[in-house]
Amino acid sequence: MYSSVLIPSSSGNVSNQTALVTPVSLAFLLLIYALGKWGWKPLWKLPWLGNILNTQLCPDLNGTWEGSLESNFKDKDGNNTITPVRLEIKADMFGFQMTQKTLVSPTQKSASSSEVLQCEVFKDPRTKKFYLYYLYQSTVLNPTETDDKEFFGAAKLEVVFHKETMELKGNYWTNRAWQRNQNTAGTISVRRKTD
User: Fold this and answer.
1) Residues 83/102, Cβ–Cβ less than 8 Å
2) Buried-exposed string 148-159: b where 16+ CB fall within 10 A, e elsewhere
3) Prediction pTM value
4) Average pLDDT over residues 56-81
5) Among 16, 91, 104, which Cα is nearest to 61's?
6) By 3-state DSSP, what share of the chain in percent is helix, strand and coil, each rounded to 5?
7) Range with the lowest mean pLDDT among 67-71, 91-95, 118-122, 166-170?
8) pLDDT of 17 over the 50 cut
9) Exposed/middle/buried for 2, CB within 10 Å: 0-12, 13-18, 19+?
10) How far is CA 100 from CA 35, 80, 115, 176, 184, in A?
11) Going by C-beta distance under 8 Å and a sequence separation of 6 or more, which residues neighbour residue 7?
12) Cα 158 from chain centroid (whole Å)
């Protein structure tokens, strides 16, 4: 899609400046795209400016996050289930992608995989804290006979700033096995491992 503006000369005739407007507009759009896709990252990496941008404008959540998920689902001993979890976040000024995998153990393949359907980074105007809200659809890779193959969930995680890293922590809830009054909820706590 091209747009051009006709610029009349002082005599009222359309001038040759029209031919310049379209390439300038295109160059401007390409510059904005490049800045929004990749150009912003170096600013967030600067020690003094990056801290201000992360804590005041919007945190850079890109990277691999690892931690644990504690569910109200009880194990065979009656304790809450604690499962390793890994988040992968890829974000720029135009989009936000996130996957969530619960792991059998930190070195093994995933037990379930989640696709994020909707997410938002939100700064609470009252507390000035950032939160990551998301809705996801999860697939259990090897469901038991009494388990659901797929379910939906939601989470609200606070972005906590530490000296060397960030942490995401908060609550989640699902509709997994809700028909049997066994839907799960719990807490998630993850720290960024790589950018």
Assistant:
1) yes
2) beebebbbebeb
3) 0.77
4) 90
5) 91
6) 20, 45, 35
7) 91-95
8) yes
9) exposed
10) 28, 20, 7, 16, 16
11) 14, 15, 17, 18, 21
12) 12
DSSP result, 106-159: TTSPEEEEEEEEEEEEEE-TTT--EEEEEEEEEEESS--TTS-SEEEEEEEEEE
Contacts of 32 (CB under 8 A, 6+ apart): none
Q: Tell me yes or no: is domain 63-194 CATH 3.30.70.
A: no
Amino acid identity for residue 182 in this structure = Q
Tokens 């600067």 -> residue:
46
Q: What are phi and psi of 88, to 5 degrees?
A: -120, 120
Per-residue pLDDT for 16 more than 60?
no
Separation of alpha carbons 85 and 189, rounded Å: 9
> What is the domain partition of the chain in residue ranges?
18-57, 63-194
DSSP string, 163-175: SS-EEEEEEEEE-
CA terminus-to-terminus distance, the chain = 35
